Amino acid sequence: TVDSFDAANCVIVNAAPDCDDGDAGTMDSFDVANCVCVNEIIPVLGCTDPTACNYNPDANQDDGTCVAAPCAPGCTDPTACNYDAAADADDGSCVTAGTISTSDATTVCAQDGNDDVVSVTVMGNVGENYAYVVTDGSGTTILAGPSTTGSFNLEGAPAGTCLIWGISYNGTLDIPSDQVADLMGCFALSNSIAVVRQQSGCTDPTACNYDDTAECDNGSCVLPDGCTDAAACNYNPDAVCDDGSCQLPDGCTDPAACNYDPAASCDNGFCTYATVYYEDQDLDGLGDPNSTIESCEATPPTGYVAGPGDICPLLDNALFGQPCDDGNPATPLSFYSEITCNCEPSTDECDLDLPNTGLGREGALFGITDFPIDGNEVYTWYNDSNEIVAVFTGYPYYSPNTVGAYYLIVTDPDNPGCFQFLGPRTIDETNGCCELDGPEGP
Questions:
Q1: 0.85 cut: is pTM over it?
Q2: Exposure of 58 by Cβ count < 10 A (0-12 exposed, 13-18 middle, 19+ buried)?
Protein backbone atom coordinates (compact mmCIF):
# COMPACT_ATOMS: atom_id res chain seq x y z
CA THR A 1 0.00 0.00 0.00
CA VAL A 2 1.36 3.44 -1.01
CA ASP A 3 0.56 6.17 1.44
CA SER A 4 1.51 9.04 -1.00
CA PHE A 5 3.49 9.37 -4.24
CA ASP A 6 5.46 12.40 -5.47
CA ALA A 7 5.25 11.96 -9.26
CA ALA A 8 7.30 15.06 -10.10
CA ASN A 9 10.27 13.83 -8.24
CA CYS A 10 9.36 10.14 -8.52
CA VAL A 11 9.55 9.74 -4.80
CA ILE A 12 7.45 7.45 -2.56
CA VAL A 13 6.45 9.22 0.59
CA ASN A 14 5.64 7.00 3.65
CA ALA A 15 5.38 4.01 1.30
CA ALA A 16 5.32 0.38 2.17
CA PRO A 17 7.86 -1.87 0.41
CA ASP A 18 5.17 -3.09 -2.04
CA CYS A 19 2.35 -1.51 -3.95
CA ASP A 20 -1.16 -2.58 -4.91
CA ASP A 21 -2.66 -2.03 -8.32
CA GLY A 22 -6.08 -3.28 -7.21
CA ASP A 23 -5.88 -6.65 -9.01
CA ALA A 24 -6.36 -9.53 -6.55
CA GLY A 25 -4.87 -11.99 -9.03
CA THR A 26 -1.51 -10.34 -9.13
CA MET A 27 1.37 -10.01 -6.73
CA ASP A 28 2.66 -6.40 -6.98
CA SER A 29 6.02 -4.79 -6.37
CA PHE A 30 7.28 -1.20 -6.95
CA ASP A 31 9.87 -0.49 -9.62
CA VAL A 32 11.67 2.59 -8.29
CA ALA A 33 13.93 2.93 -11.34
CA ASN A 34 11.00 3.25 -13.73
CA CYS A 35 8.62 4.72 -11.13
CA VAL A 36 5.90 2.13 -11.83
CA CYS A 37 3.95 -0.57 -9.91
CA VAL A 38 4.89 -3.92 -11.49
CA ASN A 39 2.24 -6.69 -11.69
CA GLU A 40 3.50 -10.20 -10.89
CA ILE A 41 0.92 -13.00 -11.46
CA ILE A 42 0.63 -15.68 -8.72
CA PRO A 43 0.81 -19.10 -10.41
CA VAL A 44 -2.06 -21.57 -9.71
CA LEU A 45 -1.33 -24.93 -11.35
CA GLY A 46 -4.12 -27.05 -12.75
CA CYS A 47 -6.18 -27.84 -15.82
CA THR A 48 -7.14 -24.60 -17.55
CA ASP A 49 -9.19 -26.25 -20.35
CA PRO A 50 -12.87 -25.53 -19.70
CA THR A 51 -13.84 -28.57 -21.80
CA ALA A 52 -11.72 -30.97 -19.80
CA CYS A 53 -13.18 -33.30 -17.20
CA ASN A 54 -10.82 -31.92 -14.60
CA TYR A 55 -11.02 -28.25 -15.49
CA ASN A 56 -9.95 -26.02 -12.61
CA PRO A 57 -11.40 -22.52 -12.93
CA ASP A 58 -8.91 -21.20 -10.35
CA ALA A 59 -5.86 -22.39 -12.28
CA ASN A 60 -3.92 -19.72 -14.23
CA GLN A 61 -1.12 -21.99 -15.32
CA ASP A 62 -1.90 -25.30 -17.05
CA ASP A 63 -0.02 -28.22 -15.58
CA GLY A 64 -0.81 -30.62 -18.41
CA THR A 65 -3.25 -32.76 -16.40
CA CYS A 66 -6.38 -32.00 -18.41
CA VAL A 67 -8.49 -35.07 -19.15
CA ALA A 68 -10.53 -34.85 -22.25
CA ALA A 69 -14.16 -35.88 -22.27
CA PRO A 70 -15.84 -38.31 -21.87
CA CYS A 71 -15.01 -38.25 -18.13
CA ALA A 72 -14.98 -41.25 -15.60
CA PRO A 73 -16.00 -39.75 -12.21
CA GLY A 74 -15.23 -41.57 -8.94
CA CYS A 75 -13.01 -41.58 -5.84
CA THR A 76 -9.55 -40.68 -6.85
CA ASP A 77 -8.00 -40.78 -3.30
CA PRO A 78 -5.72 -43.87 -3.16
CA THR A 79 -6.02 -43.93 0.66
CA ALA A 80 -9.82 -44.22 0.60
CA CYS A 81 -11.45 -47.61 0.95
CA ASN A 82 -13.54 -46.95 -2.16
CA TYR A 83 -10.68 -45.66 -4.33
CA ASP A 84 -11.43 -46.08 -8.02
CA ALA A 85 -8.27 -46.41 -10.06
CA ALA A 86 -10.28 -46.01 -13.27
CA ALA A 87 -11.79 -42.70 -12.23
CA ASP A 88 -10.38 -39.69 -13.97
CA ALA A 89 -12.43 -37.11 -12.11
CA ASP A 90 -13.05 -37.07 -8.35
CA ASP A 91 -16.76 -36.92 -7.61
CA GLY A 92 -16.41 -36.39 -3.84
CA SER A 93 -17.51 -39.93 -3.00
CA CYS A 94 -14.37 -40.99 -1.12
CA VAL A 95 -15.34 -42.45 2.26
CA THR A 96 -14.19 -39.99 4.89
CA ALA A 97 -14.85 -40.23 8.64
CA GLY A 98 -14.83 -36.49 9.20
CA THR A 99 -14.18 -34.91 12.58
CA ILE A 100 -16.14 -35.75 15.74
CA SER A 101 -16.53 -33.42 18.72
CA THR A 102 -18.49 -33.11 21.98
CA SER A 103 -19.55 -30.40 24.35
CA ASP A 104 -19.91 -32.83 27.29
CA ALA A 105 -17.38 -33.34 30.06
CA THR A 106 -14.72 -35.86 29.14
CA THR A 107 -13.41 -36.36 32.68
CA VAL A 108 -16.03 -38.21 34.68
CA CYS A 109 -16.34 -39.97 38.04
CA ALA A 110 -16.71 -43.67 37.33
CA GLN A 111 -19.43 -45.68 39.03
CA ASP A 112 -20.57 -42.90 41.34
CA GLY A 113 -24.24 -43.56 40.65
CA ASN A 114 -24.61 -40.58 38.35
CA ASP A 115 -25.08 -40.88 34.60
CA ASP A 116 -21.96 -40.03 32.60
CA VAL A 117 -23.47 -39.35 29.18
CA VAL A 118 -21.09 -38.25 26.44
CA SER A 119 -22.69 -37.34 23.12
CA VAL A 120 -20.59 -36.69 20.01
CA THR A 121 -21.40 -35.19 16.61
CA VAL A 122 -19.55 -35.38 13.31
CA MET A 123 -18.73 -32.86 10.59
CA GLY A 124 -17.17 -33.36 7.17
CA ASN A 125 -17.92 -37.05 6.88
CA VAL A 126 -18.60 -38.84 3.59
CA GLY A 127 -20.13 -42.28 3.37
CA GLU A 128 -23.40 -44.14 3.06
CA ASN A 129 -23.59 -44.90 6.82
CA TYR A 130 -22.13 -43.61 10.04
CA ALA A 131 -21.71 -45.22 13.47
CA TYR A 132 -19.83 -44.67 16.73
CA VAL A 133 -17.89 -47.09 18.92
CA VAL A 134 -16.09 -46.92 22.26
CA THR A 135 -12.70 -48.60 22.63
CA ASP A 136 -10.15 -48.98 25.37
CA GLY A 137 -7.45 -46.39 25.83
CA SER A 138 -5.14 -48.09 23.34
CA GLY A 139 -7.82 -48.15 20.63
CA THR A 140 -7.53 -51.89 20.14
CA THR A 141 -10.59 -53.34 21.91
CA ILE A 142 -14.19 -52.34 21.27
CA LEU A 143 -16.05 -51.80 24.56
CA ALA A 144 -19.38 -50.44 23.32
CA GLY A 145 -21.19 -49.86 20.04
CA PRO A 146 -21.69 -49.54 17.22
CA SER A 147 -24.26 -46.83 17.92
CA THR A 148 -25.86 -44.58 15.38
CA THR A 149 -26.84 -41.95 17.97
CA GLY A 150 -23.35 -41.05 19.13
CA SER A 151 -24.51 -40.96 22.74
CA PHE A 152 -22.92 -43.20 25.38
CA ASN A 153 -23.59 -43.50 29.11
CA LEU A 154 -20.26 -44.52 30.58
CA GLU A 155 -21.40 -44.74 34.21
CA GLY A 156 -21.16 -48.53 34.34
CA ALA A 157 -17.62 -48.61 33.02
CA PRO A 158 -14.71 -49.09 35.44
CA ALA A 159 -12.04 -46.49 36.03
CA GLY A 160 -9.65 -45.86 33.20
CA THR A 161 -9.50 -44.11 29.83
CA CYS A 162 -11.69 -44.97 26.86
CA LEU A 163 -11.86 -43.57 23.32
CA ILE A 164 -14.93 -42.66 21.28
CA TRP A 165 -14.57 -43.04 17.51
CA GLY A 166 -16.68 -42.22 14.49
CA ILE A 167 -16.87 -44.73 11.61
CA SER A 168 -18.03 -43.76 8.15
CA TYR A 169 -18.71 -46.75 5.93
CA ASN A 170 -20.38 -47.91 2.74
CA GLY A 171 -22.56 -50.99 2.66
CA THR A 172 -22.17 -53.22 5.70
CA LEU A 173 -19.69 -52.93 8.55
CA ASP A 174 -18.72 -56.41 9.78
CA ILE A 175 -17.61 -56.64 13.44
CA PRO A 176 -16.65 -60.31 14.01
CA SER A 177 -14.92 -59.69 17.38
CA ASP A 178 -14.19 -56.95 19.90
CA GLN A 179 -10.91 -56.15 18.20
CA VAL A 180 -10.69 -53.03 16.08
CA ALA A 181 -8.21 -54.82 13.85
CA ASP A 182 -10.93 -57.31 12.91
CA LEU A 183 -13.32 -54.70 11.47
CA MET A 184 -14.27 -55.58 7.92
CA GLY A 185 -15.90 -53.45 5.22
CA CYS A 186 -15.30 -50.18 3.47
CA PHE A 187 -14.88 -47.74 6.34
CA ALA A 188 -12.87 -44.88 7.69
CA LEU A 189 -12.11 -44.02 11.33
CA SER A 190 -12.42 -40.49 12.61
CA ASN A 191 -10.37 -38.78 15.23
CA SER A 192 -10.91 -40.14 18.75
CA ILE A 193 -12.24 -38.37 21.84
CA ALA A 194 -10.62 -39.56 25.07
CA VAL A 195 -12.89 -39.88 28.11
CA VAL A 196 -11.07 -40.20 31.45
CA ARG A 197 -13.09 -42.17 34.02
CA GLN A 198 -11.68 -41.40 37.47
CA GLN A 199 -11.63 -43.95 40.27
CA SER A 200 -14.60 -43.18 42.52
CA GLY A 201 -14.85 -43.65 46.27
CA CYS A 202 -14.98 -41.76 49.53
CA THR A 203 -12.46 -38.92 49.55
CA ASP A 204 -13.19 -37.61 53.06
CA PRO A 205 -10.32 -38.64 55.39
CA THR A 206 -12.63 -38.37 58.41
CA ALA A 207 -15.01 -41.02 57.06
CA CYS A 208 -14.89 -44.64 58.18
CA ASN A 209 -14.77 -45.79 54.55
CA TYR A 210 -12.18 -43.29 53.34
CA ASP A 211 -10.44 -44.53 50.17
CA ASP A 212 -7.03 -43.00 49.59
CA THR A 213 -7.00 -44.35 46.03
CA ALA A 214 -10.21 -42.53 45.06
CA GLU A 215 -9.84 -39.67 42.56
CA CYS A 216 -13.41 -38.45 42.82
CA ASP A 217 -16.08 -38.68 45.51
CA ASN A 218 -19.04 -40.95 44.84
CA GLY A 219 -21.13 -39.77 47.79
CA SER A 220 -20.59 -42.99 49.74
CA CYS A 221 -18.70 -41.49 52.69
CA VAL A 222 -19.88 -42.80 56.04
CA LEU A 223 -19.12 -40.13 58.60
CA PRO A 224 -18.77 -40.71 62.35
CA ASP A 225 -22.22 -40.76 63.92
CA GLY A 226 -21.91 -42.33 67.35
CA CYS A 227 -20.44 -45.09 69.49
CA THR A 228 -20.51 -48.52 67.84
CA ASP A 229 -19.03 -50.56 70.73
CA ALA A 230 -21.82 -52.65 72.24
CA ALA A 231 -19.88 -52.83 75.51
CA ALA A 232 -19.91 -49.05 75.94
CA CYS A 233 -22.42 -47.23 78.12
CA ASN A 234 -23.23 -44.82 75.28
CA TYR A 235 -23.50 -47.50 72.60
CA ASN A 236 -25.72 -46.36 69.73
CA PRO A 237 -27.23 -49.31 67.84
CA ASP A 238 -28.12 -46.98 64.96
CA ALA A 239 -24.55 -45.73 64.53
CA VAL A 240 -22.50 -47.21 61.68
CA CYS A 241 -19.27 -45.21 62.00
CA ASP A 242 -17.61 -44.87 65.39
CA ASP A 243 -16.88 -41.30 66.43
CA GLY A 244 -14.45 -42.19 69.22
CA SER A 245 -16.87 -41.15 71.95
CA CYS A 246 -17.43 -44.62 73.43
CA GLN A 247 -17.46 -44.67 77.23
CA LEU A 248 -16.27 -48.13 78.21
CA PRO A 249 -16.91 -49.66 81.64
CA ASP A 250 -14.39 -48.31 84.13
CA GLY A 251 -15.79 -49.02 87.58
CA CYS A 252 -18.81 -49.11 89.87
CA THR A 253 -20.98 -46.00 89.59
CA ASP A 254 -23.56 -46.81 92.30
CA PRO A 255 -22.94 -44.63 95.38
CA ALA A 256 -24.73 -47.23 97.50
CA ALA A 257 -22.22 -49.93 96.59
CA CYS A 258 -19.26 -50.93 98.74
CA ASN A 259 -16.86 -50.50 95.82
CA TYR A 260 -18.33 -47.25 94.46
CA ASP A 261 -15.80 -45.36 92.34
CA PRO A 262 -16.60 -41.63 92.12
CA ALA A 263 -14.18 -41.31 89.18
CA ALA A 264 -15.97 -43.96 87.11
CA SER A 265 -18.32 -42.81 84.35
CA CYS A 266 -19.49 -46.15 82.93
CA ASP A 267 -20.62 -48.93 85.24
CA ASN A 268 -18.77 -52.21 84.79
CA GLY A 269 -21.50 -54.36 86.33
CA PHE A 270 -19.33 -55.44 89.25
CA CYS A 271 -20.76 -53.31 92.05
CA THR A 272 -20.72 -55.09 95.39
CA TYR A 273 -23.15 -54.25 98.15
CA ALA A 274 -23.21 -54.52 101.92
CA THR A 275 -24.20 -57.87 103.40
CA VAL A 276 -26.90 -58.04 106.05
CA TYR A 277 -25.66 -59.80 109.17
CA TYR A 278 -27.89 -60.99 112.03
CA GLU A 279 -27.15 -60.73 115.73
CA ASP A 280 -26.53 -64.05 117.47
CA GLN A 281 -26.92 -63.27 121.18
CA ASP A 282 -27.17 -66.90 122.30
CA LEU A 283 -24.27 -67.97 120.05
CA ASP A 284 -26.23 -70.84 118.56
CA GLY A 285 -25.18 -69.96 115.01
CA LEU A 286 -28.61 -68.57 114.15
CA GLY A 287 -29.29 -64.87 113.77
CA ASP A 288 -32.04 -62.68 115.14
CA PRO A 289 -34.08 -61.45 112.13
CA ASN A 290 -35.04 -58.35 114.11
CA SER A 291 -31.50 -57.29 114.96
CA THR A 292 -29.29 -56.70 111.93
CA ILE A 293 -26.39 -54.64 110.67
CA GLU A 294 -24.98 -54.12 107.18
CA SER A 295 -21.30 -54.51 106.45
CA CYS A 296 -19.08 -54.55 103.36
CA GLU A 297 -16.81 -57.08 105.07
CA ALA A 298 -16.83 -60.63 103.74
CA THR A 299 -17.18 -62.16 107.19
CA PRO A 300 -19.69 -61.28 109.91
CA PRO A 301 -18.48 -59.12 112.78
CA THR A 302 -18.23 -60.62 116.24
CA GLY A 303 -21.65 -61.52 117.67
CA TYR A 304 -23.29 -61.73 114.22
CA VAL A 305 -23.94 -64.50 111.73
CA ALA A 306 -24.70 -64.59 108.03
CA GLY A 307 -28.25 -65.89 108.23
CA PRO A 308 -31.43 -65.42 110.27
CA GLY A 309 -33.56 -68.20 111.68
CA ASP A 310 -33.09 -67.78 115.42
CA ILE A 311 -36.56 -68.41 116.80
CA CYS A 312 -35.42 -67.57 120.28
CA PRO A 313 -32.55 -65.08 120.13
CA LEU A 314 -31.71 -65.53 123.81
CA LEU A 315 -32.00 -69.33 123.86
CA ASP A 316 -29.83 -71.84 122.05
CA ASN A 317 -32.27 -73.28 119.54
CA ALA A 318 -30.55 -76.64 119.85
CA LEU A 319 -32.15 -76.93 123.32
CA PHE A 320 -35.68 -77.01 121.94
CA GLY A 321 -37.38 -80.10 123.39
CA GLN A 322 -34.53 -80.76 125.76
CA PRO A 323 -35.32 -81.28 129.46
CA CYS A 324 -34.93 -78.36 131.78
CA ASP A 325 -35.74 -77.21 135.32
CA ASP A 326 -38.51 -74.67 135.44
CA GLY A 327 -37.79 -74.06 139.16
CA ASN A 328 -41.06 -75.57 140.26
CA PRO A 329 -40.66 -78.80 142.36
CA ALA A 330 -44.23 -79.69 141.53
CA THR A 331 -43.45 -80.08 137.82
CA PRO A 332 -40.76 -82.72 137.54
CA LEU A 333 -41.01 -82.90 133.73
CA SER A 334 -40.14 -79.69 131.80
CA PHE A 335 -38.80 -78.89 128.31
CA TYR A 336 -37.40 -75.86 126.49
CA SER A 337 -40.17 -74.44 124.30
CA GLU A 338 -39.55 -72.94 120.84
CA ILE A 339 -42.87 -71.15 121.20
CA THR A 340 -42.24 -69.30 124.46
CA CYS A 341 -38.44 -69.59 124.40
CA ASN A 342 -38.63 -70.63 128.05
CA CYS A 343 -38.48 -73.79 130.16
CA GLU A 344 -42.07 -74.97 130.22
CA PRO A 345 -43.63 -77.83 132.23
CA SER A 346 -44.77 -80.75 130.19
CA THR A 347 -48.46 -81.40 129.93
CA ASP A 348 -47.84 -85.11 129.49
CA GLU A 349 -48.68 -87.41 132.40
CA CYS A 350 -45.67 -89.05 133.94
CA ASP A 351 -45.69 -91.67 136.74
CA LEU A 352 -42.14 -90.85 137.74
CA ASP A 353 -42.28 -88.48 140.72
CA LEU A 354 -38.81 -88.00 142.11
CA PRO A 355 -38.29 -85.61 145.03
CA ASN A 356 -36.41 -82.57 143.76
CA THR A 357 -34.22 -82.05 146.77
CA GLY A 358 -31.37 -80.76 144.66
CA LEU A 359 -27.76 -81.64 144.31
CA GLY A 360 -25.76 -82.01 147.51
CA ARG A 361 -22.29 -82.92 148.68
CA GLU A 362 -21.32 -85.99 150.57
CA GLY A 363 -17.63 -85.89 151.18
CA ALA A 364 -15.91 -85.57 147.81
CA LEU A 365 -19.04 -86.76 146.01
CA PHE A 366 -21.97 -84.78 144.75
CA GLY A 367 -25.35 -86.19 144.09
CA ILE A 368 -29.01 -86.37 144.95
CA THR A 369 -29.79 -86.09 148.60
CA ASP A 370 -32.67 -87.94 150.27
CA PHE A 371 -33.41 -89.86 147.06
CA PRO A 372 -35.08 -93.33 147.37
CA ILE A 373 -32.84 -95.51 145.22
CA ASP A 374 -34.44 -98.69 143.85
CA GLY A 375 -31.53 -99.67 141.59
CA ASN A 376 -33.08 -98.98 138.16
CA GLU A 377 -32.52 -95.27 137.80
CA VAL A 378 -29.97 -93.95 135.28
CA TYR A 379 -28.00 -90.88 136.36
CA THR A 380 -26.56 -88.82 133.47
CA TRP A 381 -24.28 -85.92 134.31
CA TYR A 382 -23.81 -82.90 131.95
CA ASN A 383 -21.40 -79.97 132.04
CA ASP A 384 -22.30 -76.39 131.15
CA SER A 385 -21.61 -77.18 127.47
CA ASN A 386 -24.41 -79.75 127.51
CA GLU A 387 -21.82 -82.53 127.14
CA ILE A 388 -22.28 -85.84 128.94
CA VAL A 389 -19.47 -86.29 131.45
CA ALA A 390 -20.69 -89.36 133.35
CA VAL A 391 -23.46 -92.01 133.31
CA PHE A 392 -24.27 -94.28 136.25
CA THR A 393 -27.01 -96.78 136.92
CA GLY A 394 -28.29 -97.03 140.49
CA TYR A 395 -25.60 -94.69 141.67
CA PRO A 396 -26.52 -91.01 142.18
CA TYR A 397 -23.07 -89.62 142.96
CA TYR A 398 -20.32 -88.12 140.83
CA SER A 399 -16.91 -86.64 141.64
CA PRO A 400 -16.01 -83.98 138.99
CA ASN A 401 -12.37 -83.33 138.19
CA THR A 402 -13.00 -79.90 136.65
CA VAL A 403 -14.63 -76.89 138.21
CA GLY A 404 -17.74 -75.51 136.49
CA ALA A 405 -21.50 -75.87 136.32
CA TYR A 406 -23.12 -79.30 136.14
CA TYR A 407 -26.60 -80.68 135.99
CA LEU A 408 -28.07 -84.14 136.36
CA ILE A 409 -30.87 -85.92 134.49
CA VAL A 410 -32.39 -89.00 136.11
CA THR A 411 -34.40 -91.46 134.04
CA ASP A 412 -36.21 -94.63 135.03
CA PRO A 413 -36.49 -97.54 132.58
CA ASP A 414 -39.72 -98.46 134.29
CA ASN A 415 -41.17 -95.07 133.29
CA PRO A 416 -40.08 -94.40 129.66
CA GLY A 417 -40.32 -90.79 128.62
CA CYS A 418 -40.15 -89.45 132.17
CA PHE A 419 -37.10 -87.82 133.65
CA GLN A 420 -36.01 -85.61 136.51
CA PHE A 421 -33.84 -82.54 135.89
CA LEU A 422 -31.64 -81.50 138.81
CA GLY A 423 -29.31 -78.53 138.86
CA PRO A 424 -27.45 -76.83 137.58
CA ARG A 425 -24.96 -76.37 140.36
CA THR A 426 -21.54 -74.71 140.28
CA ILE A 427 -18.52 -76.65 141.61
CA ASP A 428 -15.80 -74.21 142.68
CA GLU A 429 -13.01 -76.71 143.38
CA THR A 430 -12.37 -80.44 143.20
CA ASN A 431 -10.08 -81.24 146.16
CA GLY A 432 -12.65 -83.13 148.24
CA CYS A 433 -13.84 -80.24 150.33
CA CYS A 434 -15.79 -78.49 147.63
CA GLU A 435 -18.65 -76.13 147.69
CA LEU A 436 -21.70 -76.66 145.49
CA ASP A 437 -23.45 -73.31 144.98
CA GLY A 438 -27.05 -72.84 144.03
CA PRO A 439 -30.51 -72.18 145.31
CA GLU A 440 -30.75 -75.80 146.45
CA GLY A 441 -27.22 -76.02 147.80
CA PRO A 442 -26.19 -77.89 150.94
A1: no
A2: exposed
